[in-house]
Amino acid sequence: MSCDFLALAQPGVQKLSPYVPGKPVDELARELDLDPAGIVKLASNENPLGPSPKALEAIRNELAELTRYPDGNGFELKRRLAERCGVTPAQVTLGNGSNDILDLVARAYLAPGLNAVFSEHAFAVYPIATQAVGATGKVVPAKDWGHDLPAMLAAVDTNTRVVFIANPNNPTGTWFGPAALEDFLAKVPENVLVVLDEAYIEYAEGDELPDGLNYLGRYPNLLVSRTFSKAYGLAALRVGYGLSSAQVADVLNRVRQPFNVNSLALTAACAALDDADYLAESRRVNDAGMLQLEEGFRTLGLSWIPSKGNFIAVDFGRDAAPINQAMLREGVILRPVAGYGMPTFLRVSIGLPEENARCLEALAKVLGRG
To answer: For all residues of the chain together, what is the average pLDDT?
Structure first.
């Protein structure tokens, strides 16, 4: 090829590396000639329960309409989200997963010469979305593996347009409380959009974490992003949403792709919102699984970062890459996080009890502590 198309790409894009997802079961089965049925995947923070029965029924009822385009405005899902979250439909932006919301923010508010602030060890999409539009990412060192909100505030300058914060954070599972968030929001300049990523908020109960919805009315520069991929068990359908002022939502909808959320995702999300029993069971399984893994790590002499998500980052005190490869040979898929500046850790998603047990048994074998 005589033309270098990489050189023709925007400078920010040239320096990007593609996002690397958790290894699929079928891929590992092909690579190591393993039986797919015997593989346990605890790599992608998926809900081990499978989808809500109500969501599955809604999908079946929608299949006959696959020849039609989706509702491009997502009227019914927006209506239900607005009712559930105490906002108006005009304040809701629908996305192809919450990643889409993060990308829309970057496309709408960032450009060369501007910057976004985010934490060390934070979700990989923040720097990807920022760099892709030619803006600069300002990475603030973490504190105890989590967000140092005062330091992030200090990093904001006259060229900052967006601050990305996650609560809880992926992949560390760390979190901050209501007082820390309130203090941060009160001091951020009003022309800086604060994106509060709450992808795992449904796993928290009571006042464990601040609810971003409680701050929307007082801070017009706040956007809360959420997803149906985690606690609601719809990761394959890719449906997320942003809640913000109506003006910010209007801006995001100007760059949103037409029909970015498909019909099956729209109808399944509506049904999932109505399944309170499923959500409660998701929390119960997650809480029990977290305790099961923590006890197992303790028995193996391992340390970990306390987490409020549906995953836990475990520290092996040495390069975790060989341990990850050995676990793959045992048919257990975990998530390497060296790319997040955590080379001694692996992230373990919470699975069903038997999946968690299989993970711990394989770890004991790999570490020679069985």
So the answer is: 94
**Exposure of 272 in the CB half-sphere (CA atoms within 13 A):** 30
Among candidate residues 147, 247, 255, the one with its CA nearest the CA of residue 193? 247
Sign of torsion, CA 364 366 368 370?
Answer: positive
What distances in angstroms separate CA 239 from CA 137, 236, 242, 311, one per listed residue? 26, 9, 11, 20
| 95: helix, strand or coil | strand
Helix (H) or strand (E) holding 226: strand 222-227
pLDDT mean for each 10 residues of the chain (370 residues): 78 77 82 84 95 96 95 95 96 96 97 97 95 95 97 98 97 95 96 97 86 95 97 96 97 94 97 95 96 97 96 97 95 95 97 97 89
d(CA 107, CA 230): 25
Distance CA(229)–CA(101), nearest Å, equals 14
- Give the number of residues written for the chain: 370
CA 66 to chain centre: 28
Summarised one tens digit per residue, pLDDT across range 56-101 is 999 999 999 999 999 999 999 999 999 999 999 999 999 999 999 9
Nearest-angstrom CA–CA distance, 319 and 47:
28
For residue 346, give both structure tokens. 């692996």
DSSP result, 344-360 = TEEEEE---HHHHHHHH
Q: What is the pLDDT of residues 109-141, one digit of tens each?
A: 999 999 999 999 999 999 999 999 999 999 999
Q: Any idea what the Cα angle at residue 230 is, between residues 228 and 231, rounded to 5°?
A: 85
**How many other C-beta atoms lie within 10 A of the C-beta of residue 315?**
16
**Predicted pLDDT at 370:** 59
pTM: 0.93
How buried is 294 (Cβ within 10 angstroms: 0-12 exposed, 13-18 middle, 19+ buried)? middle
* Cα–Cα nearest to 196, from 131, 288, 101, 276: 101
